[in-house]
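Quick one, tokens below. Sequence please?
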């Protein structure tokens, strides 16, 4: 008997999960997209059916501003202002992706 994605625990780090029309999931996680930066700087959406990914970068990280100009206007240290765009892409992908989940 196969368990449904809604009945299983989400993997560590997943902040949002969408069910695709093919029965697999698309997960949104936070990760560091800058070399040597340990804190999150972007949202990553990953489809576990077809493997397609999408990244929403939170903006330039002031700690690694090579020009010494400080924080950039589009940088959001919490990522909250970029989460709606990540969710919008994820929802649209989940609605059209028909890739089947891989067997366990």
């Amino acid at each position: 008997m196969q368990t449904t994605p809604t009945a299983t625990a989400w993997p560590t780090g997943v902040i949002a999960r969408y069910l695709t029309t093919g029965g697999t999931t698309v997960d949104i996680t936070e990760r560091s997209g800058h070399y040597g930066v340990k804190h999150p700087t972007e949202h990553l959406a990953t489809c576990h059916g077809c493997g397609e990914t999408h990244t929403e970068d939170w903006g330039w990280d002031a700690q690694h501003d090579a020009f010494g100009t400080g924080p950039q206007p589009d940088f959001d240290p919490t990522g909250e202002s970029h989460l709606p765009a990540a969710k919008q892409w994820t929802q649209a992908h989940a609605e059209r992706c028909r890739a089947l989940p891989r067997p366990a």
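DSSP finds one helix and four strands in the chain. The mean pLDDT is 81.
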